[in-house]
Amino acid sequence: MDKTVRILVLMGSESDLPVMEGALRVIEEMGHSCELRICSAHRMPDVTMEYAKSARQRGIEVIICGAGMAAHLAGVVASYTTVPVIGVPLSSGALGGVDSLYSTVQMPTGIPVATVAINGAKNAAYLALEILSIKYPDIANQLALHRENMKSQLLSKSEELEKRYKT
Predict the structure, then answer these.
(1) Burial class (CB in 10 A: 0-12, 13-18, 19+), 167
(2) What is the rounded CA–CA span in Å between residue 11 and residue 123?
(3) What CATH number does residue 57 fall under?
């Protein structure tokens, strides 16, 4: 599999890693690699801006941003690049991630951020791979095979349950 880094995964802080590891595992299981960095939109805005501005030149084709609470990371990154940005609102604070969801999904016209569910890092990785599959047929084939495998596994489980609970 092609190990070229095309996906950049950014987190607002190290505490986001347990959720964002879901994206890293999906990317790795599908045979790809990614660049991972902590970039806080509030505590290190200059570094975050530089990562966003230089992403395309570094060969990055999709950016996944995970952040909680105010969750400005994905929006800030999207404001500095035209590389597709996927936001992962993280569950944190008193509102359990709803604040993160609203902060990520409510972007102004012209600065889009694709947004997955609260703590939806795995789906962010699948979405990133789907975006890449438009350009890379091998990734499209991988994703199609993965879906067939999921379907087969579910059918097997269903048949197993049907046999076990048949009356």
Answers:
(1) exposed
(2) 16
(3) 3.40.50.1970
Model pTM score: 0.92
Please report whether residue 43 resides in a domain. yes
In a domain, 159, yes or no: no
Residue with tokens 């350009």: 135
**21-25, 59-63, 81-85, 100-104: range with lowest mean pLDDT:** 100-104
- Over residues 97-106, the pLDDT tens digits come to 999 999 999 9
Residue range(s) defining the domain that contains residue 39: 7-136
The 10s digit of each residue's pLDDT in 45-65 is: 999 999 999 999 999 999 999
Assign 1 a pLDDT band (cuts: 50, 70, 90): low
Task: Encode 103-131 in three state secondary structure.
Answer: HHHCCCCCCCCEECCCCCHHHHHHHHHHH
In a domain, 117, yes or no: yes
Helix (H, G, I), strand (E, B) or coil at 43: coil
> Is residue 18 assigned to a domain?
yes
Sorted by sequence, the CB contacts under 8 Å of residue 88 that are 6+ apart come out as 19, 20, 23, 64, 65, 66, 67, 74, 104, 116, 119, 120, 121, 124
Number of domains the chain contains = 1
